[in-house]
Amino acid sequence: MQTYDLIIIGSGPGGYAAALAAGKAGLVTALVESGPLGGTCLNWGCIPTKLFLGATEPIAGIRAQERLRLASGSMTVDLPALQRRKDTMVGASRKAIEQSLTRVNVELIRGRARLASPTSIIVNNADNGEETELGFAKLIIATGSSPSFFPGMEPDHQTILDSTDLLDLAEAPESLAIIGAGAIGLEMGQFWERLGTKITLIEGMDRVAPTEDPEISKVITTALKRAKWKISTGKKVASIQAENNKAVVTLEDGTTFEADKALVAVGRKPNTEGLNLEAAAIATQGRGWITTDDCLLAGENIYAIGDVNGRTLLAHAASDQAEYVIRHILEQTSDPYGPGPIPGCIYGSMEAIRTGFTAEELTTQGKTVTISRAMLSANPISQSHGAPAGLVKVVWSQGKVMGISAVGHGVSHLITLCEVVVKEGWTREKAENIVFAHPTLDEALKEALLAQQA
Amino acid sequence: MQTYDLIIIGSGPGGYAAALAAGKAGLVTALVESGPLGGTCLNWGCIPTKLFLGATEPIAGIRAQERLRLASGSMTVDLPALQRRKDTMVGASRKAIEQSLTRVNVELIRGRARLASPTSIIVNNADNGEETELGFAKLIIATGSSPSFFPGMEPDHQTILDSTDLLDLAEAPESLAIIGAGAIGLEMGQFWERLGTKITLIEGMDRVAPTEDPEISKVITTALKRAKWKISTGKKVASIQAENNKAVVTLEDGTTFEADKALVAVGRKPNTEGLNLEAAAIATQGRGWITTDDCLLAGENIYAIGDVNGRTLLAHAASDQAEYVIRHILEQTSDPYGPGPIPGCIYGSMEAIRTGFTAEELTTQGKTVTISRAMLSANPISQSHGAPAGLVKVVWSQGKVMGISAVGHGVSHLITLCEVVVKEGWTREKAENIVFAHPTLDEALKEALLAQQA
Predict the structure, then answer these.
(1) How many other C-beta atoms can be found within 10 angstroms of the C-beta atom of residue B130?
(2) Residue-level pLDDT at A50
(3) Is the ipTM of this complex over 0.90?
(4) Of A168, B2, B216, B375, whose CA is between 20 and 30 Å from B388?
(5) Looking at chain A from residue 90 to 109, which residues have their Cβ under 8 Å from any Cβ of chain B?
């Protein structure tokens, strides 16, 4: 039986980053992947959606200037051409991933892996179905997650779609019902809205972007309503049926409506099916998320990173966990995994970001909290884009920044700066000592950091 | 004679910031202004140009997607409407400035000031020409700068224009000759190019953006040439004449060409004319820049801040000096003024930023320098905007970041993050410990910080 210092299952942002770091460090490493290299993020997630939003941004820009009566115009998108470019770009990135793995001597094994014992896996070869047992000193499970569905709203992939289906539609539907107002629903909806699709958004929680600060949700809601989205919050969907090429959505209150297509984006589930976790006595929790200890260990010599451990379902969280685990394997650290704040963004015409704690989270922890904020309405960069709605909200405890949320045009550009401010727990004095260039959107953050706290 | 704790001459970003801080601190303060509140930045500089660039950004966005054959379209700008909006916005900001000064009890005096003695000024009332002498314990001169011209190229304000004239043109000229490839020429040129004007750019130095790193200049040049700018560097202009409503530009090598309008943006000179600096024995240097010591003192109890002292001709540099001077007056600091790196941006479709030192500057100081860089071509956000040209360049000395330059679509959004990295002298390890959200343009900075240094 061939054995490796390290076997990694899954080549998404977690598995790929782990393989690259392990290869550089000289570990004899194999990376097993049953699908396309790069995982959800590259193939059906962050990257395609950013490409679609970036390509259609001028449409939103034209509309913003038209609202101010400063300009008029239009842009027509060649959707098949955009999809081909997406495929080309994603394909090039897959190739780049493969090359960089080869460069650091990581062996790439195409096939589906399952645990055979606490020290070995079996790979079912993707081409010929042959099964091979491979031994490992260390194993990293980085298999990610997939869209999940409540009973009664499973996609048929024709009319009732998941986020992957929606990327490949041949033409913009006239109307689209989006079930779930998280990042996926909001980003996808904005893309199709720009192409002329009428959007109806249904969220079971009491507001859009329900994991964000309520003030953030409010600004997003206003912007979407202005863009003629029909929004229904606090209402659960009872069922979605495909009838005569239409999606018929029935809410629990009995209301029913029709749309050409429906996107179900209500959550994700861990990819653990068929992994045979029992062979190494690996525990799971909730929907099947792999239980990990403080060092991301799921069992002896077996780590789980990224979405599959259910900690933070974000690509950069997976990569960060990957880098930590390789240092842990190399005994460069024995500290528990403590990444500090993990930044998050929702992209589109109206963007939202968050890093660190919300006021509510800190109050729940029994901390005394103060808040300072700045509106974007006076910021010259926001004004120049005809996008004065939005704010930056800073959460303080004991004189230090504990969290920042922001919403508005282009605020995703503030995220790493906010991450640094929160991670380092800036004081007001620290913020005073930084020269902010003028005019920048960044000055809204400065204004929020220096504003009266209450 | 009425006397004040503090008199400030000029209400631009320096004078205004000083007045606000002084008022808050309870100093009996007067602010003297002969023109519109807000100075060059608000009325004829940073703010109007950002508004013009922001409003026309969709045009550049459409062109970028058209180049990729992903879309087609156009946007027509209502130039008079845009100018009216500029006037409205700028007017509202002037009003906001006035209100915030009133709120902290700063007395606003409209008129032209000149020094009468080392402890008093005379103000010539703007309305009635009356002259009043006012005494001060401390004086801040913050009179800013104005466009300067070489002999033979003075504007006639009809055909041969300065940057202020160019903001108010009633329609886009068919062709525009821009003399000077600094920030003003590049930003203004990009605005008019978007409206259809053919641009010819003449720079006497050997490259566009001559104060930036040569690698940055190269990327800008390529982008402008692709946008059909005619560019001539290393050639000085001998004269510009207005003939039959055309600007006739003659270079020193005898070449001559015609354009509908010419913009002369070759430099700036300090606004010291009529200030009667001799009354307080205040020294100047070069074109008349006021000489200041390490504490920004130009004489006993007389400070000079902002453009007029010639240190850094940027709005935020003036504001930062203002805040220092007020602390110095209040005896909260006796340290010499040491702002650290001052960030700078050039805006437009192809943006450039810089903070800290260039490699050349450090080498001249005898320091050992290494360089690391990342190209934007692989960044998903750059790709999504059809704008893969550009790079982030990091300059290191003794394991610490000493300067960062960047060029490309949207890189102005990196400026404050870069400022923090340079000001704090990040090490490679420090950069490794920050979680960068994915996908962001910020990741290009991460990649540059972690790239091999050479």
Answers:
(1) 10
(2) 97
(3) yes
(4) A168
(5) 96
Residue B150, pLDDT score = 87
Partner A contacted by B319 (CB < 8 A): yes
End-to-end C-alpha distance for chain A, whole angstroms: 65
Q: Which residue on chain A is closest to B412 by alpha carbon?
A: A440
Structure tokens at A427: 């004081």
**In whole numbers, what is the pLDDT of chain B averaged over residues?**
97
The pLDDT of residue B91: 97
Give the pLDDT confidence of A181-191 residue by residue, as tens digits.
Answer: 999 999 999 99
Residue A183: per-residue pLDDT: 96
* Whether B440 and A412 lie within 8 Å, measured CB to CB: yes
pLDDT confidence of residue B209: 97
Residue B80 in contact with partner chain A when CB distance is under 8 A: no
The token duo for B33 is: 């202004």
Residue A160 has pLDDT above 90, yes or no: yes
Q: Assign A150 a pLDDT band (cuts: 50, 70, 90).
A: confident
Radius of gyration of the CA atoms of chain A, in A: 23
**Is B108 strand, coil or helix?**
strand
* Tokens of residue B453, six digits: 């240094």
- Does A435 contact B341 at a Cβ distance shorter than 8 Å? yes
Query: Strand, helix or coil at A321?
Result: helix
Helix, strand, or coil here: B432?
A: helix
pLDDT in tens, B99-154: 999 999 999 999 999 999 999 999 999 889 899 999 999 999 999 999 999 888 89
Compute the distance between CA of residue A103 and CA of residue A85 in angstroms, rounded to an integer: 27
Q: Which residue has the higher pLDDT, A170 or B448?
A: B448
- Please tell me the predicted confidence (pLDDT) of residue B127: 87
* Interface A-B: count of C-beta contacts within 8 A: 230
**What is the rounded CA–CA span in Å between residue B363 and residue B360?**
5
CA angle (A292 as vertex; A290, A296 as ends), nearest 5: 125
Instruction: Report the largest interatomic distance among the alpha carbons of chain B, rounded to a whole angstrom.
Output: 71
Could you check whether the bond before residue B439 is cis, i.e. omega within 30 degrees of 0? yes
Strands A175-179 and A261-264, sheet pairing: parallel
**Length of chain B in residues, anyone?**
454
Give B414's contacts (C-beta < 8 A, 6+ positions apart): B353, B392, B406, B441, B442, B444, B445
Q: Which has the closest alpha carbon to B369: B403, B407, B406, B414?
A: B403
| Residues of A catalogued as catalytic | 438
For residue B31, the cross-strand partners are: B8, B108
Residue A357: closest CA among A316, A398, A390: A398
**Residues of chain B neighbouring A13 (CB-CB closer than 8 A):** 438
Phi-psi region of B230 (alpha: psi -120 to 50; beta: other; left: phi over 0): beta
Q: Which residue of A has its CA nearest to B342?
A: A435
**How far apart are the C-alpha atoms of B59 and B172, rounded to whole Å?**
15
Q: Cα(B273)–Cα(A314) distance, rounded to whole angstroms?
A: 59
Cα–Cα distance for residue pair B139/B209, rounded to 1 Å? 35
The answer, yes or no, to whether residue A127 has pLDDT greater than 90, is: no
Q: Return the residue matching tokens 């870069």.
A: B418
- What number is the average pLDDT over the span A75-99? 97
**For residue B152, which of B257, B242, B273 has the smallest C-alpha distance?**
B242
Which domains are present in chain B? Answer: 2-43+82-147+269-329 (3.50.50.60), 160-266 (3.50.50.60), 344-450 (3.30.390.30)
The distance of B442 to chain A (nearest Cα, Å) reads 7
**pLDDT for residue A247 is more than 90:** yes
pLDDT higher than 90, residue B9: yes
Question: Which tokens belong to A136?
Answer: 């490992």
The average pLDDT across B411-425 equals 98
Q: Tell whether omega for the bond before A439 is within 30 degrees of 0, i.e. cis.
A: yes
Chain A CB contacts of B51 under 8 Å are 380, 383-384
Angle in degrees, CA B5, B11, B15, rounded to 5: 55
Rounded Cα distance, B404 and A24, in Å: 27
